[in-house]
Amino acid sequence: MRALLGQVTLRFYAELNDFLPPYRRQVAFVQPLSGRTSVKDLVEGLGVPHTEVDLILVNGEPVDFAYIVQDGDRISVYPVFESIDISPLTRLRPRPLRVPRFVLDVHLGKLAVYLRMLGFDTLYGNDYDDATLARLAADQRRILLTRDRGLLRRSVVTHGYYVRATVPRQQLVEVIRRFDLLGSIAPFRRCMRCNGLLAPVAKQDVIDQLPPRTRRSYDEFYRCRECTRVYWKGSHFLRMQQFIDQLRASE
Questions:
Q1: Residue 158: helix, strand or coil by DSSP?
Q2: Segment 37-59, tens digit of pLDDT
Q3: Which of 3, 16, 34, 191 has the least CB density, counted as fewest CB within 10 Å?
Q4: CA–CA distance, 103 with 128 (Å, rounded to integer)
């Protein structure tokens, strides 16, 4: 059994409390130290992924993830700031990606469809393992969306987010608000099946792929450049547009 080397006092703020057990939420609590540890390892050991953290203050001073905690430290841990400028301090998160692109874990297939539907570059595969997800996020500079907290603790993942909601439409609203995507929505840009780009196509070029009712009712069509799936602005498009309008009205 390791001997205790002291203790620290921690306090997590705002949505970081989602990762803590109820008795540790919104309060300062004491954490024993059993060995030399960085503040990053300490925070992640308590269940909070580093991708969710934007600022750590130790005894009132900003530190980076490599800081080695000391007996008696008072540690305050803050989430990503959306509206408060903390640039004079030591911000831990890398700068936001100029163009938001995503890769999603196996639990978020419906969310992937919704994001593609709204025009966002979204990778998803039900056979992606954790190593593949982390590599895609790092190599292609994508935001990793996941329901697996452990996946966000991988050091190669610099941009990631733990999706709290469990209902796909609620997940979509959560992600749009978290990454301020409302102004970037562009329906009929990407294929909902494979994420390929769509291009306008003449009706006569795809008429043999259309149901009889669609042939009679629609004249504007799009085709995926990758898998050749054909799209048109049917009732699903109207429902999508209503959803977008509702989302904008709620802001």
A1: coil
A2: 999 999 999 999 999 998 999 99
A3: 3
A4: 10
Name the strand (E) or helix (H) holding 24.
none
CA distance 116 to 175: 13
Amino acid identity of 150?
A: G
pLDDT at 143: 94
Q: Using one digit for the tens of pLDDT, what is the confidence trace for 170-195? A: 999 999 988 889 888 888 899 999 99
Say whether 227 sits in a helix, a strand or coil.
coil
Residues 137 and 157: beta-carbon distance below 8 Å = yes
The predicted structure's pLDDT at residue 81: 60
- Locate the DSSP E strands across the chain: 6-12, 29-33, 53-58, 61-62, 74-79, 102-104, 122-124, 143-146, 160-162, 198-201, 221-224, 230-232
Using only C-alpha atoms, the chain has a radius of gyration, in whole angstroms, of 22
